[in-house]
Write the structure tokens for this entry.
Amino acid sequence: MNKVFLLLLSVLFLPSRAVPLNNVDVDPNRRIDCDPDPGSNQQSCESRGCVWDPNYDSSHPTVPLCYFPPNTGYASTGSSDKSVSLSPVAGSTPNPYGSNFDKLTFSYKNLGSAVYIQIAPDGVTRYRPPVPLNTSAVIKSTENLIVETSTNSDGLFAFNVHRDSDNVRIWDTSIGGLLFSDQYIQISTYLPTDKIYGFGETIHKTLKHDFTKYTTWGMFARDQPPDSAGGRPQNLYGVHPFYLGMEANGKAHGVFIFNSNAQEVTTGPAPHLTYRTIGGQLEIYFFPGPTPEAVIQQYQQVIGTPFLPAYWGLGFQLCRYGYSGVQEVIDTVNKMRAAGIPQDVQFADIDYMERYKDFTYDHDKWGAWPNFTDQLHDMGMKVTLIFDPAIEVDYDSFQRGLDQGATFISWPREDLVMRDIQDQYPLAKNTVYMLGVVWPDKHVAFPDFLDPQDNTNNWWANEFKLYHDQQAFDGIWIDMNEPSNFGTNDDHPWYYDSSDHPNDLPLKCPTSGPDASLDIPPYLTTNVWTWGGYLATNTLCMLATTMRNQSRFYDTKNLYGWSESKATYAALKNARGKRGVVISRSTFPSSGQYAGHWLGDNTARWEDLQTSVIGAQEFNLFGIPYVGSDICGFIGTSNEELCLRWQQMGAFHSFSRNHNTLGAPAQDPTVWPTVAAAARQANLFRYRHLPYLYSLHFAASLNGGTVLRPVFFEFPDEEQTLTLSYEFMWGSGMLIAPVVTQGATSVDVYLPTGSNWYSLFDYNYGQKVNSGRNTYPAPWTSLIPVFLRAGYILPRQDPALTTVDSRKNPFGLVIGIGQNVHGNGKASGQLYWDDGESWVDDIQSYNYHYFTFDMTVTSSSSSLVITKVKSGKDITMTTLDNIEILGHNLTPDTSIFYMNGKEVHPDVNYSASTQIMNITQSGLIDWNSGSSWTLQWKNKASRN
């Protein structure tokens, strides 16, 4: 019997509500999966009223066998200005995970050139994340987005979002599939391109998504280490439903779906995508670009621009889980200094605490910790400490929380409280707080940082102030904030077999009856299928209450890291009064306003080195540019070659920290002489160029945008840049090509043809290199390939072992001359400078210097103009002593130079063969006096 006859036969035995309107074959490349749960079969498929097609190409096993008929969705029942009323299409396939709402409203509004769309049920209050987005932003662009609605012959409503300039459809929902029930929302769309980047936090083996197959990416905050070797699309620590698309004409657009429930996106070959979530509503922002960097700036107009890290936060940082005590830390710091390796920050992981309790330290092994912290400060170094959100419920911090009216994530009813746990603790006995198990010996409660009364955040800030009075710290590292909970629903959790943890009773969530409707919803999402268990696995029960009973944890879980970051950022100000850094494991859109991120508990493998290059680029897309990985790998045993290559690459991530786990051998750079030499070389290069990196962060805080960015951001018209995963850029001016494969002693590099380039590493330093694809040497003893883009001026400063000392050294400029259409040489750049540590309440009114640099080379003369565009108050700078010019293809007349028309006589070195020119003089330019400086000299007529 053929497939159609079998399907017709099966339909006769289906309930009447499940009979599809028609049985239309859909191209395997354009399907919307009707049975995304594991183990799809014909019976379950057809019982839903969907189409079962067992005839697929065996070489494409990801094609859905069970799919929705193309008429699935809603129909228009009326419209007004920018609003359409919707009802389910008569006779169409029903929602397989609950009854569709009978009435929806589709509405949109223009945000300048951008568009905001909302789809929500009528007369029903749906959950919205309490993240304060700028919903009245006026997005300015040379391109405008237009919303157009339509109805097909089956009555199916659809909308598209297209550009007014060329009608490219960024979204086109005519593919069908709109569903909206209480706990299952689905929307599908055709895409104009398969050049899609983003969605997180997940491990991506390539920067560009693979649309040759169907792939489902979960977004649900989990304590899940990245599986870089296996490459499984597991959800990790954060949730970022944002992506950037590159169209065939080189234009970029961005899409942000604002929802904090468990969610997922499936990408397919059409190209198309299906977005699913199990709560809230659909709120979608569309950004027109048209450049990639403009997309990110527009996105950040809505979610907020990133915080400005303290200057020292850009220095190298060192940590390990498993220091035996203060003496090992002292020895490690001394070895680093003896090896001449710049280091600014020393971390301490949870082993500094008294039995892993926040706001304590071990008075035995770590008794000298406060004194050593003072010594580190005297050395110009800083200290960052780890703090977990969970608070043991039998000591002073918890007592103060109760006294100050703080609130904690709670059971919704008294009868659900686990009395065999609660009654153990006098302080918690009469509460309904949901107690769990993490690192401390006793049960813990989880502060609710979404407390609408702010009592919880005020108590949290006060705890940091009290602890800072005991031990001065500079940065705060917040971990385990998905939040993570050990052994949820396990009869024999892993810590029962640990000698370092008591056998505390684990948290048990309802798994049957009405109370299980949130922990075991109709559709669990791929966040459970790729994990195993329930939504509550390794976290708290979804039916818990937050926001003083105003919300359920089911809705707010993915906001926990964001809310703790916001509270901790305020706590840092309260404790120090000066800027520092907050590093968070779990993140959500707008987290970048308050915290940076490290890419989690990676493993000492080459695959993890590779995915960390991609992850840092992605988090710049997500609005969190202060990001990096655990250099050399956290889990497992690193090795000499891997650690060396990771130190070289990690020197170019904004957050640059070496960190490894308990029980593994030490892996700080001094363990191997070769790694120490490579780390010293890479860190000295980094510290020399920190004024440029800091300026990039400053510009991102002021105007939005990225710091470390994909190469295609600068060269979107070059097809080859769209698939580069392991090269990246610092801003517009520097390109980095790390070694990411074992045994490699060279790197295959693509230098975009849209620019000229100069080598900034050991190979032919300062000379022009060919654009296009070339192979460059990368021995262990060399800096990895780094290139200066022609036409750019980068500020730099003589390096030292700490940023405190480097900021005392003279400045310099490195200039890469670019030729314009008239044959004249041009280059430009900028520098933002402040005291590096004052607290920034409002970056727009903050106190800082801002300089611009403009270089011109003609056949007769050269000039460098430095302009102080903005002058900060009481910010003293060291002098500019060196100017290095690359690509000066005219021989300069070195006999006379002029500064603002007055004759000066700096030391000048010029090589006609390399075209490198160095101008050096102590105090050549004093930034502190004057507002404009012009350095000029004559050139000899012949070009080299």
Confidence is low (pLDDT under 50) at residues 1-22.
